[in-house]
Amino acid sequence: MMGLKRSLKSLIIIFFAVALVCTSVLPVAAESTTSAGTHWYVIKDIGFALKVPPDLKIKRAEKKGNFIGSNDKIRVKIIRWNQVSYPNLNSLYKLVGKHTSKKIKKVRRGGLKMVKVLGLKTKVKYYILAPNGDDYIITISPNKKKNPKLRFKDIKKDAKAIEESFRLPKKIPKGAKRITIKKTKFPKPNYLVLVNSSNKISKKWSDKISTVKAVNSRGNKVKAERRTYKAYLKLKHDLEKNDSVYVDLDYGLRTVKEQQEIIDEYTERYGYAYANRIAAKPGYSEHHTGLALDLYLIIDGEEVYLNEEMEKYPKVWKKIHAKLAKYGFILRYPKNSGYPYEPWHIRYVGKKAAKEIMAEPGLTLEQYLARS
Ligand SMILES: [Zn+2]
Question: What's the pTM?
């Protein structure tokens, strides 16, 4: 009995020894064939692929639209930026230039268009233009949470390797991990909301909308409701391409405090009577909704943004107004409506209502809403 047990024991030892030898040989072979793709990630909703070190796993973070990956050494972060004026590399380049004092460079890699920020000491940063027209920021930095002593120079090689893998997901090995993300659901506010001198903005309104920030050609920050802004970009693009008309955003979403500042500015420039007539009381401005936009014109490369100057270009406004309904906008204060005429103030209401309102010149939103 004893002898049998002993020989069984040695059999087991031999078995484990063989297994050990096998496992130390086999993975090398596997590495060069099938598992090569396992370090690749395809982030499907972006249309972007990258290769990371084997122990780095990219996951979608809790925060909307963010991807985070880390191992002991590196942290990779991909976030939505939502800033591009329209989808081309030059507009991305210009915009990034306004957001950083560092030198930047246009980069095309693997079919992707991006802007790289140069000279950052603690991380490497890219602004990527996804094929769907959205823009993302990728940063690769040392994982200081794991090791506070890590410096960027310690991960420079790894960061470079990741950068070199950036590409469109057309030619990547089989077995790449795919991160499929459902489209982010943004809130859909009531696009027919009425805010005027007798209808105050609801206190809850700001919780109901998702906003985006942009920088205009004058370097000012402008905020607007997300769908309103996207529709505006389409309008702007159409006007440039087909009418050679150039516009930009002077004002979008305005807080109650900012409304007071506008009134002060108008009072100083045009006097109390005009300011009182053209600017709404704080709380009663349509600009609080984020659905109202004030345009300004760019004529022969010069910005024309003062009201009295803008009024000198009726033919240009006519071309702009003709395109509004197609993108869901109305001219909110048309001629003969009882309101002072404001050719620059447009309001997003959605395509259906916009087509109906714009089909009847002089019809106001108030009159339209009173019908239904
Ligand atoms: Zn306005």
Answer: 0.64
